[in-house]
Amino acid sequence: MDKGTAVVTAGERAFDLRVGEVVFHKPQEFHALRADPNDPPNVFIVCFCCRSQAMNFFAGKHMTVPTPLRPYIGEIITAGQDTYYLNHDSPYAVGLRKREDAPFDGEQLIRLNLELFLLKLRRYGRLSSPKSPVDDHADRLTRRMMERLNDSVYSRISVDSLCQELGFSRAYLSAHFKKNTGRTITQYLTELKIKEAKYLIRKERYSVARISEFLCYDNPHYFCRVFKKQTQMTPKQYRNSVLFDPKEQP
C-alpha cells in the first residue's frame, strides 16, 4: 500500500491495509480488496510462483515493509513499466505483453529485485524478540500482541491503537502483557527498535539520523537518548565499539 487505506479480505479474515504495509495471500486463497471510491488508494499487486519451502514463512503474513526495503518495490515497478505494456482499462487482465523496446535485462531485474525483497523481508520478519518469560504455552493474546509489536519496528503504533485493534481496554491489555512478559508494551517495543537500531548501525550504511527516521523516532536527539538509556552508550560509541569487535553478534 503506497497511499491511503483499504480493507483486505483474506480467507475468513478482514483487516485494514495501511501505507507501507504488505499482505501475502496463500495460493488459492480467496481474497478481495475494497476502498472508498471517493479516496482511492495506491496499491501495487504482484503475483508470482515459487516452490521454495521458505515461502511458508510468508503464508498469511500482514507486515510493515521496513523503509530500507521499499526501494526494491520501486525497482520492480520501474522495470515492469519498462518491460511490459500496462493495460489501465483492464487491470485484472490475465497475461503480460512484452514491449518491443523492452530492455534486455528487464525481466531479470524484476526477478532479482523480487527475490532480494523477499529474502530481506524474511530476515526482518524473523527479528528475534527480547528474552521473555513467556514460554511455549503462553496465551494466544500475549503472543498476538508480541507478533503485532514485532511487525511494528519500522512503523508507529500506540498502545491505544493496539487496544482498539485487539478489542480490549488499555488497562486490561497493559496489565495482561506486563503479567506475562515482565515488561510494559512500550518497553517491549523500545527494546525491539533499539535491537534493530544496533543491527543497522553495524551495517555502516546509514547515518544516525536516517536510522532514527527508519524507526519512526520524532528526532535524532530523542532517539540517541533512548538508545543510550537502553545500551549505556550513544549510537556513535556503539558504532566505534563494534568496529573493533568482530565477534559482536546481533
Task: Outline the fold blueprint.
Elements: E1 6-10, E2 13-17, E3 21-23, E4 31-34, E5 62-64, H1 70-83, H2 106-125, H3 140-150, H4 159-166, H5 170-181, H6 185-203, H7 208-214, H8 220-231, H9 235-243
Antiparallel strand pairs: 1-2, 1-4, 3-5
Write structural notes for this entry.
45% of the residues lie in helices and 8% in strands. It is mainly alpha-helical and 250 residues long. It is globular and about 60 Å long. Residues 127-138 and 245-250 have low confidence and may be disordered.
Radius of gyration: 20 Å
Q: Order the strands across the largest sheet as they lie in space.
A: 2-1-4
Structural class: mainly alpha
Number of helices in the DSSP assignment: 9
Ranges with pLDDT <50 over ≥5 residues? 127-138, 245-250
Identify the notable features of this structure and list them briefly.
single chain; 250 residues; mainly alpha; 3-stranded antiparallel β-sheet; two-stranded antiparallel ribbon; 9 helices; 5 strands; 8% strand; globular; disordered C terminus
Task: Compose a concise summary of this entry.
By secondary structure, the protein is mostly helical. Helix content is 45%, strand content 8%.
